[in-house]
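Supplementary Methods S3. Input chains for the assembly prediction are listed below.
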Amino acid sequence: MLEGLSNVVVKEVRELIRDPKILIGMIIVPLLMFPLMGFAFRTSMQIAVESVRAMSIGVIDQDKGVYAQELFSTLAFSNLTVIRLEATNVDQAAKSVQDSNITAVVVIPEGFSQNITNDLQAKVHVYGVFRGMGLAEASGPSAVVSLVNAFSEFLALRKVGNPAKLNPILTSQESIVKGKVVSVSHSALSSLVLSQYIGLPVAIIVMLILVMQIAATSVASEKEEKTLETILTMPVGRFTILLGKLAGSVVVAAVGALAGVVGFNYYIGSYTAAFAAQPSVDLASVGLAPTLTAYFVLGASFFVALLCALALAIAISSIAEDVRSAQAIVGYFSFILYVPMIFIMYTDIGMLPMALRLVLLAIPFTHPMLAARAAVLGEYTVALMGIVYVSVFTVAVLYVAARIFTTEKILTMRLRLKRGKPRREE
Amino acid sequence: MSFAVKAEGLAKVFGSVRALDGLSFQVKTGEIYGLIGPNGAGKTTALRIVSTLLLPTSGSVRIFDHDVLREASEVRKLISYLPEEAGAYKNLSGYEYLQFMGRFNRDDKRDLKAMVEDAAAISGLGERLRDRVKTYSKGMKRRLLVARALMNKPKLAVLDEPTSGLDVLHSYHVRNLIKQYVEKHGVTVLLSSHNMLEVEYLCDRVALINKGKIVAEGAPAELKARYKASNLEEVFAEVAGLA
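Predicted structure tokens for the full assembly:
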């Protein structure tokens, strides 16, 4: 029944291991891509851990009583740097705190010590400073809350004779956003962070890869279908043909960018709606709901990134032998997209070592991901600088593609990913 | 005497392969000139240089006195090139393909319409021109492409193996089509073929190429007489030293 099976298997294995596309795919993925992604994870995690260790907390002591002093000592006893703030209330402190490296502000209200002495529940307010610096940020304020709770349990143990006071301190959690106090817990804001740093980069990458795969066929399919030679001898400039191809793809990219912004709007909208359940929160007023300018900047950033991806794909397409080769090469390129994604998801790119930061910034696709964060935080300069860089990069890629297109290289360059000498021209 | 093509000392090197090795020939205005030879002789390379697709390593080509290197865009206005393995955009209909290609040559809508109608007649594809190219047989596609190459009445048509891969009937149709069109419109044709019988029927003069060089040149009858051969195949075997 299975006669001839071994014959087919042997042929299959031989064919597969001789196909450089598969060979490169098998080498690049395990040997290069996974270690690189692992490196990105490890580095961003290390930086996150270090940032928690090096965390500073600001304390506003409105109570000045004995238990307030004890709580202050407990916080200072941990690895955290605890700074006594001069401001008398959190609103006063919010602005200067936002610009400092303080991750959380602990406010010990008046009557704190008296309440504990009288076996009444005392309150402590913890304000997490929201900076939108990635997933690691959320660990800061929660560490402070844990310390306050530990202190609370310690007090409960001391007062064990009084069973009604097992919870002497009630911690309230709020946030500082853009120098203003917002009554949303830092952990709730972190889920917004989560949505941005996981959802959006992934969405951007999926879109870029999709568009690149489509554009990669543009010139390669003309080669494969044998229509390129004919069109190259028509009385029309080579650069015109290239621009025509790009412009055609731009129409697709524009629709893609629009879909990206609309999708992002929906995404943010769903989070805004979730917060709207808390009556005192208006995300738009604290600047966490993107403004019209933010959408415009974000749209522009997406668009130039898509344009760049298209130009790159068309350039690759020009030197590839056929559609399959073009798409395979574009596929290898796509892994460089994942590396910035991981870094941006977990850390603030500004905290990375300079060399690594430069490498990431040199990758044009890092910029739309950064722009998404910048647009939410209203940091338009960062987004605009990215747009300028990606535009310049795109022009450079187009220049190279045009050079290939205007010479005979368009016909003689044959990246086939196949071993052996180039085919002899008849 | 005016010349449509003047090629002098053409050489083309691809890596370690010398595809053309000092090729010189002249095509008179209004004649059908054939480059013939076996696979790998250098015919396609020569035609690609004439059509501004490749640059010669050395030597020069002038088309109606325009240099293919320095005046490539002028040359492209005068020529029409049909590659050996040409294709057409498979998702366009035959008509749409002719219109798309025609727009590069004619801006005026009325001229374009007349040209496309002319091409439709040349192709003989009739109503099938409304169908998408991907539904065409190889022969139909070739007829469409030959019609495209001739429809703008180029001053020089460069046809690489015009009947490549066609069966007897399609070949017969395409050959007659070229011959009639040239007689009617005075188009000059430079073609290549390894089908010696086809060349004998079509060409006023031929050049026999082997290993990138011309080994014999003249009218088919004259060559047969010179080498006392009954057809061009025998002439080729004689001059290439195969006999």
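Chain B has a mean pLDDT of 90. DSSP finds nine helices and ten strands in chain B.
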